[in-house]
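Go through the following before class.
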Amino acid sequence: MHRSIIAPGALAAAVLLLAIPASAAPHSPGAPGIGDPYYPAYGNGGYDVSHYDLRLKYQPATDELEGTATLVARTTQDLSSFNLDFLLDVSEVRVNGAAASFTTSGEHELEVTPKTPLAKGTPVTVVVRYRGVPSSKQAYGFTSWHRTPDGGVAANEPEAAAWWFPSNDHPLDKATYDVSVLVPDGTQAISNGTLHSTSSRLGWTRWNWRSNKPQTTYLATLAVGKFDITTGRTESGIPVLNAYSKDLGDHAGAARASIERTGEIADWLAEYFGPYPYNALGGYVPNTTTGYALETQTRPFYSPRQFANGSNVSLVVHELAHQWYGDEVSLKRWKDIWINEGFARYAQWLWSEHEGEGTAQELADYVYASHPADDPFWTVKPGDPGPDNQFHIAVYDRGALAVQALRNEIGDAAFFSVLKGWPQKYAPGNASVADFQRYAEEVSGKPLAALFDTWLFQPSKPGAPAARAAAVTEAKAVPQPKSWKKIAATNGVHGHAERGHGGHGH
């Protein structure tokens, strides 16, 4: 046995060190990333934002955006400096009222050094004045800002915020929002939450939006253009506001026929997922050339192209299911994407059943049968797909197949209890696939590690015994359910084409 001998001098020094008050410890810079292995530079360390106040002015003719962002935050460590994720040109930064120095680094980092270092646990107010042309800014070789014939749109995943406001751009830091946008008369500004007021003066109209429930940065949206706006209420009393670009052309009717059913679908989903979590609802279709949809909180973004072949209510089901799975409870790390996409796809399977166009079981059987064992489809692990496959079709279809396998394993009573209980257990925070497995085990009383490993984490097709155990048919040929084409039509339209993330997505 070795004894360590400490020299008396060293011991005295150690005691002296302990006697130094913590406040004298050096302040250090906040990390430039929040610690997500898929996107190491996304988000930031050292602080937590509770509210964003954005006062913006946007000129559709030139795509110029100017604004003042006020971030209400609290430090989580002693800070000498901290980063914001942002791409536009900054003219001034103030921290707690005093001018701060700032510089840019990396692809999208704004480094801020306050006049006085900040102690851990103190409230901080950061004011950033800026302007720029969002469509001219790129990070990692792409832009998340969509220029339209009559304006611009911020909507993308996993990132869009940096093109229009400075933020802590990661789902772990959720906040409430006030978004106030000045645009030329005759132009509308659409954002999340509730439209509190509009006012016009000297040729400009200000639109004031409020999101009163915590929201992640990638779910914050802004769309400026010429829109037709419809308003109403769901049967359960939630106000609905939808917006359609005035130049959707031939896609206009199909878009409305789909999105005007938003209230009905939200009420229907509430039967499975529990009460709708927000005080506002809707959807919007700007005239973009993109091909995906995104579950921007309370008001999903839809691309016109998705309605090229007629209405697609299944797509609306998918984006609204995310209001619970992804928005109300958000992922902890981007590897947890299955909780968002597997369940939003499964909601489409439940809708198919509701419409009499194929049961969830028939859809699961079809997915299992239509991909042979050597199909690369099975090499993607929905439980941790990697950043390049985050929006791969396997995350959706194999992801929903895993949900059906869980349902068959624990039985309908426990399964529907999990489906409804999960958003309430973790709202309005963040949770991981491991958290979900633990919760399902708690509710069902069954060990589920083997099931989760087989269906979500193995880079191979679950074999016949696993399929039998999960009550998935092993038949080689399974008839295609009637709803399949509508569901499949939401694949290529969900994607990240400009990021090269495989053209599947949100």
Notes: Residues 266 and 320 are 7 Å apart (CA to CA). Residues 1-22, 493-505 have pLDDT under 50 and may be disordered.
